[in-house]
Structure formats: structure tokens, C-alpha cells
Design brief:
heterodimer, A: about 350 residues, mainly alpha, two-stranded antiparallel ribbon, 12 helices, 2 strands, about 0% strand, globular, B: about 400 residues, three-stranded antiparallel sheet, about 50% helix
């Protein structure tokens, strides 16, 4: 028994277990459920009923079975490769996005540490720079899918996607400079703990959204554009270039693109919670000094999940409320408006920090 | 054209420029091509440098089929011309035949036609605006408009028994009178429609992204619009207040008070605003017509235009003979040829009829308003980006049924 425990407590095995738990119990289920929730929420917005037909006998569960039905359908669909496509690149392209989406969760803490044990796969030193590196990987998926499909629509989608994602990466980093300056670190744990400080006694928590309101808007915009969600979904452009870079895909590979989109939607929400809404810290909980440790951890997980779901909801609400940008407008917004704004944000933040110091 | 000209100026020579052109087939099966049409587009990157629309995918031989039918048998075919405003086509065709006869429908029939025609015009505009907005991402707007359209389709169903295949008018009147309680239902549905219009107006009309997508896109000048033979909302968006309902004052439109909204620049945004305002004007026309609704017959009592009453068929010999001749030989409009323009959902929808008095149509020709618009697609799109095809084609409101006939 001790022997087993010893094996489990080795860092590598522990990290693997954490990866399994966070990915399989948090990211994947939330991403999967969101595919259904998006359809249900959009139905509510649009005075429709939404999916409710998949059933086992008389049981429909308000559309829950559609999750299983969709999954089964994709698995059993033929996995086609178009004529003239570059087979190898075509086959591996869907998984770049999926890997990038899942890897985001590696550095996100979902609750505070208990002793030496952290609820975070790894607290790497570069911290958020890791996120930037990983999201860059996303571009490969879109570009490879677009160029290897041997379809003009897919090619247009692929070029749009690469141009958009590379441009938005530029100021995504700049938008976060403010956060690095305020909390003095790029480590995620440092930023989260920095947000547990308070202004005016115990009145207002020093959350990212209060210290960096402009940075919040900029970073959120950049992330939405980076994940190619509406209103920045010109690369998919369902009405003019049909489905963009993944037009030719079918079956499970198509599902991989969809799943990557929804997991990165959760990833965006989790990242926003971590960086701008105090991460797992429940505000004013430190005032209750006699709180038992297990209760604190449960509350932290609940708080983190709550804010993540709220942000997921916000992104879905965004998609079904406003129209889409045209591709050149997306680029114009990025380079001409958001990039200068993020530079201004850096300068103002620096000046304020200097004045206060 | 500025983006295109800039691109051409920067390219070193004409040969370099043409080498980078990619031909892409948009349609016939493509999400933005509602109806079926093919746009063979030349792209330089994202920029459109050439386009050639190809039509005819929905050709069903309406005109030839009509020549092989009796006059009355053409009415159901007209339902399928503009399938989002079938009643306007019914009315247009029946009025053309009435013009051939030289008769007029009773006043009650005319007022009912105005009400039903304007309902059809509203459904046409709702579909066009909703679909165009959906394609640039405003999906919610589309479904709210479809909900409003559903309220109006219920009214159409109440009146004609069908939502789309209405087959409602006859020569010299209508097949049916107003059903019981129709006018109160009408008032109820119109107030619902107004509520939805207000909501949608708030949601989209002043949305910055939406305005960016449609403003200065697909602009066409007054002169070009006239030379291409534009009519309806597309022409009015260019600033020319031409409306057949006012210019020709057919039916009882001269007794009703309404305004003709006009745009100024002729871009997609103006077309959107013109159609939105026309929905409001049509609502007001329907209300006025409902208030003025006269009592009286809904069908002419002229012999050989309508089937005699059953008591005449079984009660006297003239009735029986009339019935027999109506069934066996149909209508006999006098020999001659006429052109009757009416304001359809898209613009001037005219019927050109030739009769030799024999009881069979010699020629039934329909002027489809959107034919001219699709012809002008290259003029409106070249120099814009490929994503602009969507709002431009949406505002054109191509209806395959009336375009290809």
C-alpha cells in the first residue's frame, strides 16, 4: 500500500493524474456540454425549442441525448479524403487545434494549494508566455487544413485564419503586459495570489478587471479573435466561403475541429477567470478565519467553475446577438485600433505604477 | 472601385495582375445563393475582379406551360413565381386578364386584394431582410423576422386555405370573401408585427458592425440603375421615388395614403432601410384598407366570368348552359394584347398577355423584377471583397421562381 502511494506521489505520475482529472472531468465535459448548451441557449434567444428529438424510448431529457447521438454519428461517418489532397497533412491537421486547446489547461489552477499539493498541472516559470506559445500552434491546424484540402474555399479560409491569428497574437501579448506589470510576474500562481490583495481595507479585491479594465477588454477581444469565434469568424465565413478551412472534413476529424473550438471556448473562459476575476480565490473568504480547509477548496472550485460558465455564456450570447466582421475589418480593428490601444494601456499602467511607487 | 484601382496601380503590369486571378464557382449549391444561381467569380486574393452570373437552374417553363393551359389554369402557376409573395403574383395576373376583358373587380374585392397584397409584400420584405441579415451573422434577427412572417402566413392561410399555394384570385374578384373575424385577427397580428419590428430595429439598425458591413457596399448610381431597368426597393434606394402603386395608381391605391421611402446612395444599407420603412408603410396601408372596407359582393356578377350559382345551374336553362360552357371551354377574353404592371415584392412585376379570343392564351409573359438586379451583380460586386457578395446578393433578393420562371 505504501509502495503504491509512493508511486502515485512521484511528480510525473501526479502530473499525469492531474492532467487526466482536469481534462477529463473539467475541460472535456464542459466543452461537450457547451455544444448542446449553445444550441439550447441560442434557441432561447431566438424563440425556438432547440434540439429535443434524440430519444431512448420516451426519454429525451430535453436534448441531452443529442450529445451521444452526435458523437456516435461522427464516429460512424465515413472519413473522406478529397481527391488531390495531401493525405498526411490533411489527416493530422485537425489535431493541432485540439492539442493547443487542451494544453491551455496545463497552467490554470482550479483551486488553491493544500500543503504541497497544487490543483494545477504545472506552474511553469514562463507562465502565460506558455499560453502564447501554445496558441500559436493553433495556426498550423488551420493553415494545414486549408492548404492540404485541395479546395479553393478551404484555401481562402486557411489564409484568412493564418493572417487573423498571427495578427491578433501580436497585441494579445501586449494586452497582457499591464497584468504582468501590476502583479510583477508572469507566473500564473503569482498573478492569482496578487489578486487576493485588497484595496481600502477589505473593501475591493485587487482583481485584474479593476486594475486593468482596458487590458481586460483588449485581451478578451484578442482571445475571441484567436479562437475564431463570432464576431471574428471570418475564417469560417459560413455564408461566403461555406465553412472555410475545414470545409472538406467529415466524421470524427470534423468533430475534432468542433471540439477544439468548444474546448478553447472553455479555455478562454478559464483564462479570463484566472487573470481578471481573482482565479480560484473567493473574495472576502479570508475574513472567515476558522473555515475548514476542505470547505475552502470546494468553494474555490465552485467559484472558479461559476465564473468560467458565466464567461462561456457571455461568448455564446455574443455570437447570437451581433453580426460578423468582414475579414479586412477584423484586421483593421486589430492593427489600427486595438494595437495602439494596448500600447497606450502599457504606458498608462507604467506611469500609474511609477507614480504610486 | 477604389480598392481594385489601388490594386491595379500597385501591380507592375497587366500580365502580373491577371496571373494572380483565381476563378471560383459560387453556387449553384452554396449557402448564400438562396434560390439556385451560379456566380462565376474571378478573385485576386480576396478582391473580386470579375463576375458572371448564370441563371436558369429553376426554369420550369412557366410561359410555355401557360400557353398550353386555359386562362384560369394559369393562376395556380403564378403562385410559384415569387414564392415568398404568391398573392401579389395572383393579383397581378388576375388584374392583367381583367384589363384584357376591360372590367374591374367589385370594390370590396379590390380592398381585400390590397390587404392581402400588402401582407404578401411584408412577408417578401421580411424574408429578404431576414435572410440577408442572417448571412452576415445576425441569425437572431432572421428568426425573429421569420416568427413575424409566420403570424402573417397564418392570416394568409385563414383567407386562402394555404400558406404558399394560395390560388386565390379569379377574373373579376376573389375566390373567397373575408372569413369571419378576419379583420380583428388582422389588427392583432399587425400589432404583433409592429412589436417585432421595433425589437429588430433596436437590435440591428444602429449596430456598428452591421452598418460597417452594408454601408457603401454594392452601391449603384441612379443612372446605372435606370439603364439596367431597376425597379422597386432597389431603385428607390438610389433615390428615385418610382412606385407602380403611385405611378400607375392601379386598384384602389389612389384612395389610400402612403409614402414612398427613398434612399440617397443606393448601397445595401439604403436598401435595408427602404425595405424596413416599406414594411411600416404597408402596415399603415392595410389598416386604412381595413377601415374603409366596403360592403358588397366580392366577385363580379358578369356572365361567363364566374361560375353561376348552384341554384341557377339546377334551376334554369341559362345557368346550366353557362356552367357547361365555363367548365368545358373556360374564359374567352377578347382578342388583343395588354401589358399590366403591378408593384411586386421586388419591383415592377408586369404581365404581358396576348389573346386571340379563342379561349387559350397565345402568350403569357411575366416581367420578373429581379432579372435586372441579377444582371447588374457584376457592376455592384467588382472591386469589393468576396465577403461583400453576401450582403449584396442578399439585398438583391433573387427569387429563383420569378427569375427563371
Amino acid at each position: 500500500m505504501d509502495f503504491l502511494l509512493e508511486i502515485i506521489m512521484t511528480p510525473t505520475v501526479l502530473a499525469c493524474i492531474k492532467i487526466a482529472v482536469i481534462i477529463l472531468l473539467f475541460a472535456m465535459p464542459l466543452g461537450t456540454v457547451l455544444t448542446l448548451m449553445e444550441r439550447k441557449w441560442s434557441a432561447m434567444i431566438q424563440d425556438r425549442v432547440g434540439p429535443n428529438r434524440a430519444n431512448i424510448g420516451k426519454f429525451t431529457g430535453h436534448g441531452v441525448l443529442h450529445l451521444a447521438a452526435d458523437g456516435l454519428k461522427s464516429i460512424f461517418k465515413e472519413d473522406t479524403i478529397p481527391k488531390g489532397a495531401n493525405g498526411f497533412l490533411y489527416l493530422i491537421a485537425p489535431f493541432f487545434g485540439l492539442i493547443a486547446a487542451v494544453a491551455t489547461f496545463a497552467i490554470i489552477p482550479i483551486a488553491g494549494p493544500i500543503g504541497d499539493f497544487t490543483f494545477q498541472v504545472t506552474d511553469v516559470n514562463p507562465g502565460l508566455l506558455f499560453i502564447f506559445a501554445i496558441t500559436s500552434l493553433n495556426v498550423y491546424g488551420a493553415v494545414l487544413a486549408g492548404t492540404s484540402s485541395n479546395s479553393k474555399f478551404a484555401l481562402l479560409g486557411g489564409t484568412r485564419a493564418s493572417a487573423q491569428m498571427i495578427s491578433y497574437e501580436v497585441f494579445m501579448g501586449l494586452a497582457l503586459m499591464g497584468i504582468f506589470m501590476v502583479y510583477g510576474t508572469t507566473r500564473v500562481s503569482g498573478i492569482v495570489n496578487g489578486q487576493n490583495e485588497y484595496w481600502f481595507g477589505n473593501l475591493i479585491p485587487m482583481w485584474g478587471i479593476f486594475t486593468q479594465p482596458l487590458g481586460f477588454i483588449l485581451f478578451f477581444t484578442a482571445l475571441v479573435a484567436e479562437t475564431k469565434r463570432a464576431p471574428f469568424d471570418a475564417p469560417e465565413g459560413e455564408s461566403e466561403i461555406v465553412a472555410g478551412y475545414f470545409l472538406e472534413y467529415s466524421g470524427m476529424r470534423w468533430s475534432a475541429f468542433m471540439l477544439a473550438e468548444y474546448i478553447s471556448l472553455v479555455g478562454v473562459a478559464a483564462l479570463m477567470t484566472t487573470l481578471f476575476f481573482g482565479g480560484y480565490h473567493v473574495p472576502w473568504l479570508h475574513l472567515w478565519e476558522s473555515a475548514p480547509q476542505w470547505l475552502v477548496t470546494v468553494l474555490q472550485i465552485l467559484k472558479f467553475t461559476f465564473f468560467t460558465v458565466v464567461f462561456c455564456w457571455f461568448q455564446i450570447q455574443l455570437r447570437w446577438t451581433i453580426p460578423k466582421f468582414r475579414f479586412d475589418q477584423t484586421m483593421g480593428l486589430g492593427w489600427k485600433k486595438l494595437l495602439p490601444l494596448s500600447l497606450v494601456n502599457i504606458i498608462v499602467t507604467a506611469l500609474v505604477i511609477l507614480t504610486l511607487a | 472601385m477604389t480598392a481594385l484601382q489601388a490594386r491595379m496601380a500597385t501591380s507592375k503590369s497587366g500580365a502580373d495582375f491577371s496571373a494572380s486571378v483565381m476563378t471560383i464557382e459560387i453556387g449553384p449549391a452554396h449557402p448564400a445563393m438562396h434560390g439556385i444561381v451560379r456566380l462565376t467569380t474571378q478573385l485576386d486574393g480576396e478582391l473580386i475582379v470579375g463576375m458572371e452570373p448564370e441563371i436558369g437552374y429553376l426554369h420550369r417553363g412557366f410561359e410555355k406551360e401557360s400557353e398550353n393551359s386555359k386562362w384560369i389554369q394559369v393562376i395556380p402557376y403564378t403562385d410559384r413565381l415569387n414564392y415568398v409573395s404568391p398573392l401579389l403574383c395572383n393579383i397581378g395576373y388576375s388584374m392583367a386578364v381583367e384589363k384584357l376583358y376591360g372590367i374591374e373587380a367589385p370594390r370590396r374585392a379590390e380592398f381585400t386584394r390590397v390587404i392581402m397584397g400588402e401582407i404578401s409584400r411584408i412577408t417578401d420584405h421580411l424574408t429578404c431582410l431576414g435572410a440577408a441579415a442572417m448571412e452576415i451573422g445576425a441569425f437572431t434577427f432572421f428568426l425573429w423576422f421569420i416568427k413575424a412572417r409566420e403570424y402573417l402566413y397564418e392570416l394568409v392561410e385563414e383567407m386562402t386555405g394555404a400558406r404558399l399555394t394560395t390560388n386565390w384570385t379569379r377574373f373579376g374578384g376573389n375566390s373567397m370573401d373575408l372569413p369571419d373575424g378576419f379583420l380583428s385577427d388582422l389588427a392583432d397580428r399587425l400589432s404583433k408585427l409592429e412589436g417585432i419590428m421595433e425589437e429588430c430595429d433596436k437590435l440591428l439598425t444602429r449596430n456598428k458592425i452591421f452598418i460597417d458591413r452594408v454601408k457603401d457596399v454594392g452601391t449603384i448610381s441612379k443612372e446605372d440603375a435606370l439603364s439596367y431597368g431597376f425597379s422597386g426597393p432597389m431603385l428607390r434606394a438610389c433615390g428615385i421615388p418610382f412606385d407602380v402603386r403611385r405611378a400607375d395608381a392601379y386598384s384602389v391605391y389612389d384612395e389610400l395614403d402612403f409614402e414612398i421611402p427613398v434612399g440617397s446612395t443606393g448601397d445595401c444599407f439604403d436598401r435595408f432601410l427602404v425595405r424596413m420603412e416599406e414594411i411600416r408603410q404597408s402596415t399603415s396601408i392595410i389598416k386604412q384598407a381595413a377601415d374603409k372596407m366596403p360592403e358588397g359582393p366580392f366577385m363580379t356578377d358578369e356572365r361567363m366570368l364566374h361560375y353561376p350559382d348552384k341554384k341557377d345551374v339546377y334551376g334554369n336553362i341559362e345557368g346550366l348552359i353557362d356552367h357547361f360552357k365555363m367548365v368545358m371551354e373556360g374564359h374567352h377574353p377578347p382578342a388583343g394584347e395588354i401589358y399590366m404592371p403591378t408593384e411586386g415584392g421586388n419591383g415592377e412585376m408586369g404581365f404581358y398577355l396576348v389573346s386571340d379570343g379563342s379561349g387559350d392564351p397565345v402568350r403569357v409573359r411575366m416581367r420578373p423584377p429581379c432579372f435586372n438586379f441579377v444582371q447588374a451583380m457584376p457592376l455592384m460586386t467588382v472591386g469589393h471583397y468576396v465577403a461583400d457578395i453576401v450582403p449584396i446578393f442578399g439585398s438583391v433578393n433573387m427569387i429563383g421562381g420569378e427569375l427563371d420562371r
